[in-house]
């Protein structure tokens, strides 16, 4: 993974301030140069897995790549904004029964195309609820 941060000479912002440029890799275009404001770091609070994202300045394709702790620290020190997120609570729920199959999805799709499906579903749910 090619990702470097540097302060090149002759790349000043308005006001004469030299900004850090970050070299990243677009799968379509190869190496591209970005400013810190063009990247976002995302770190999961639950497992500390990180990634960074950017829109390629050449082809405009969104790019997302996994990032080690070292890369995350390098990007944060270069001024890249970091977002922290949590895994959805549904991941930790207990699930019973077999997984949904393609046939189950087809049956569900056919049910949704029938008139009165919602009323029938409501009755079934009410019957399954403890009194």
Defining traits:
alpha+beta; 4-stranded mixed sheet; 3 helices
How do you describe this structure in short?
By secondary structure, this protein is α+β, with helices and mostly antiparallel strands.
Write up this protein.
The chain has 131 residues and is α+β, with helices and mostly antiparallel strands. The protein folds into 2 domains: 4-89, no CATH class; 90-128, no CATH class. It is built from 3 helices and 7 strands, in the order ββββββαβαα. A 4-stranded mixed sheet has the order 6-5-4-7. It has a 3-stranded antiparallel sheet with strand order 1-2-3, with no helix packed on it. The longest helix is centred in the last third of the chain and has 12 residues, at 117-128. The radius of gyration is 24 Å and the shape is elongated. Mean pLDDT is 87; it is low at 5-10.
Q: Indicate the overall shape.
A: elongated
Mean pLDDT: 87
The neighbouring-strand order within the major sheet is 6-5-4-7
How far apart are the first and last residues' alpha carbons, in Å?
Answer: 58 Å
Range of strand content = 25-35%
Q: What does the radius of gyration come to? A: 24 Å
The domain count comes to 2
Taking the sheet with the most strands, its summary is:
4 strands, mixed
Class derived from helix and strand content? alpha+beta
In N-to-C order, the SSE pattern is: EEEEEEHEHH
- The number of strands is 7
Alpha plus pi helix count: 3
Q: Catalogue the unreliable spans.
A: 5-10
Query: What proportion of the residues is helical, as a percent range?
Result: 10-25%
């Amino acid at each position: 993974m090619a990702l470097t941060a540097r302060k090149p000479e002759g790349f000043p912002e308005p006001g004469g301030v030299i900004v850090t440029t970050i070299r990243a890799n677009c799968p379509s275009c190869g190496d591209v140069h970005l400013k810190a404001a063009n990247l976002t770091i995302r770190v999961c609070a639950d497992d500390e897995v990180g990634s960074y994202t950017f829109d390629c300045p050449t082809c405009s394709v969104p790019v997302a790549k996994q990032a080690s702790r070292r890369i995350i620290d390098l990007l944060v020190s270069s001024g890249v904004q970091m977002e922290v997120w949590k895994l959805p609570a549904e991941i930790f729920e207990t699930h019973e029964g077999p997984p949904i199959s393609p046939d189950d999805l087809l049956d569900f799709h056919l049910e949704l195309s029938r008139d009165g499906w919602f009323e029938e579903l409501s009755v079934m749910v009410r019957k399954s609820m403890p009194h």
